[in-house]
Each structure stands twice: as structure tokens, then as C-alpha cells.
Amino acid sequence: MGRFILISTREHDLATSDEVRGVLAASGLAADSLRVIRLDREPLGPIDGLGLEDCPGIILGGSPFNASDHPSVKSATQKRCEADLSRLLDVLVAEDFPFLGACYGVGTLGTHQGGTIDTHYGEPVGTSRIRLTHEGRIDPLLAGLPEEFDAFVGHKEAVSVLPASAVLLADSAACPVQMFRIKTNLYATQFHPELDPMGLAQRILIYRDAGYFPPHEAQRLHDAALGSRVEWPALILRNFVQRYGAES
Question: Per-residue DSSP letters for 160-214?
């Protein structure tokens, strides 16, 4: 089996390293079975140079970037990352290549496919009750999950109009698009399947001044995260790895 690819756009090293830890722990992958690309540090380069022929699937991690931000407030790094991801998705969608984007994946894949991404359905940092749709209950990536489960969220933007080509797999009371699929093999979740309580607690401290919550709330949110019980979302990453790793 070739190596899966994790693409990170986080400019904070501690956030990136913990994201890698979370993906490995949730998926069951060994460290040498995951190639990490720090897109925040260097351009993606030619897509045909990524070695997709030997890659079972691509995972896109979360990000402090928001696809719906006005171009005037986007940094040069964000604009470059978005352009690179758009080029990559051109190929992945055309080939129906296995892809799983977590949180930021909704903005990138949703935008690429013509959906509307805006700030109408942002959710505060914490847990959200996720509900599977009928299509979600029969999708192989959600096999073994209950019809409702808690997941970690914290996002300023979300899908308000689903792409016409998308299949809705999960929603929640506060956010109508929590997971969708494009074609057969491309997925995006609004929630974070890679996050455990320790990971969320750490991100709260890292991003305390990033506008997700008032900074004075950081310690309370940190302590609440550590006391949370969120177990089911990790199965999505494990299913992704087992499904596509077994096919490679």
C-alpha cells in the first residue's frame, strides 16, 4: 500500500503536529504510511509530480483560512493555498480520486463544486449533535456510526447552498450541511473527525486570538473540551483508510 497524503495549511507548527497526531490516531495509520505536505510553507507544484498513482487517498486538514473571506483580507499564503487546492481538486474530481476534507474541506470542495460558502451557519467551538441523512446511513464511509453522534466543531463559515452535484450525508440543528459527497469518492465534513478532547483543548489555546471566541473564554472552553466525550467521528477516518488502502 502506498502512502496516504495529509495536506496541512496551518501556519502554526504545534497545530500542524497535533493534527498529524490526531489523523494517525483516528485512522490507525502508521507514521510511515502518511506523507504530510505543509502547503503553508511551499507551493504544491505540478499535480503530476505528487505521485497520485501510488497514493490511496488524500486528506485535507482544517485551517484558520476561510474560503468565504473577501479577497482583500486574504494573505498571499492563503491565496496561494487556495489556488493550489483548486488545481488539485480539478484533477481529483475529474478522476473521482479518494479525498476527505475536514472542516476546511467543506469550504474548498464546496467552493470548487459551485456551492455557496458563507457565515450564516458558523458554530461556536465545542460539540455538535450530528445527524445522518438517509444517504449517510448507507454510505460506506459512515458504516458503523450511529444515526446521531457528537462531534467537535468550531467554524466561522459553512455551506449555505449545497453544490448541485453533492449528496448530503449529515446535518445538525445549527448547521444544515455537516458532511457531503461528490461523485463516489470525494468527501467533506464540517466537523473534525481527527479531533480528540486533548487536540481540541490545544487548538483552543493556539487560536484564542483568531476570532473564534472571546479570548477571555479560552480557559473555560479548554476545560470543557478536556471533559468532553466524543468518540464516533474518528471511525470516518478509519473507514476512509481501510476502504481505500485495501483497494490500492
Answer: EE--TTEEEEEE-SS-S-SEEEETTTEEEESS-TT--HHHHHHHHHHTTTTTSS-
